[in-house]
Amino acid sequence: MTWRLLTGPGAVPPAGRGRVLAAVHGLADHGGTWQELARRLGPGYRCWVVDAPWCGAVEGPATPWAATSAGPAEWLRTALAELPEPADVLVGHSFGANAVLDHLAGAARPAARAAVLIAPLVRPAGRAPRPVLVARTRAAIRQVVADGLRVRLGRRAEAVADDVLAVMVGKALQRVPDGAAEVVLDRLLATPRPELARVVTPTLVLAGLGDQRLAGARADSLAVMPAARVRVHPHYGHFCHVTQAAEVAAECAEFFDRVVPAAAPAGPTMEVYA
């Protein structure tokens, strides 16, 4: 795996300066999804991104990742061990947020001082029958892929006919690694769970009230985490880190200022909340 440092004019401080973020994307997405948020955060941050095994391959056969992987949290721990510098903050979107969440819940000493979860996958508080929840989640995955395409197309999406978009969504779903959808279902059914009450890492959860497919108000279930702050905004969508990047960046910056003081020029110091 290869971590990439997002760069831009004056946006990334030199090595050893600023807060270090390690960002993990959602299903069928890629590391470039963090570009706008990194730009909005501006000077003082170093944002490392990686293409996770559940990314949407541009070409070539889909990878049977889920059948051979030990799981998203285990993958993330291995990936963090290969990060060029220690991460102050872990940031995850959608399924990537669940990988971060599982890492925090399962690691004795998480390698980060704080975390941001954007539109995580959370099971509703009232347990729906498994067949119903599975069917709804499969439909939600397709809708999220469609929304992701619209976000990447931007204004061009207005000129794309519905039937053409449906074909594009079908092709995008074919690029999802074999078995990844089953892993998504597994992680969705696993939350909320008792282990979350032991996660003491300061965590900011951001979700949209209108994003009822996988997150939305259901993010309140994560309030069982003793150091979590859950914010649900009426106008945030599932890809708010892209479509509302300025607002998300402002919320993250305020959160970082409180829980992750800026590093000294000599380099970031690691502190584990326990």
From TrEMBL:
<dbReference type="InterPro" id="IPR000073">
    <property type="entry name" value="AB_hydrolase_1"/>
</dbReference>
<feature type="domain" description="AB hydrolase-1">
    <location>
        <begin position="24"/>
        <end position="250"/>
    </location>
</feature>
<keyword id="KW-0378">Hydrolase</keyword>
<protein>
    <submittedName>
        <fullName>Alpha/beta hydrolase</fullName>
    </submittedName>
</protein>
<dbReference type="Pfam" id="PF12697">
    <property type="entry name" value="Abhydrolase_6"/>
</dbReference>
<dbReference type="GO" id="GO:0016787">
    <property type="term" value="F:hydrolase activity"/>
</dbReference>
<dbReference type="InterPro" id="IPR029058">
    <property type="entry name" value="AB_hydrolase_fold"/>
</dbReference>
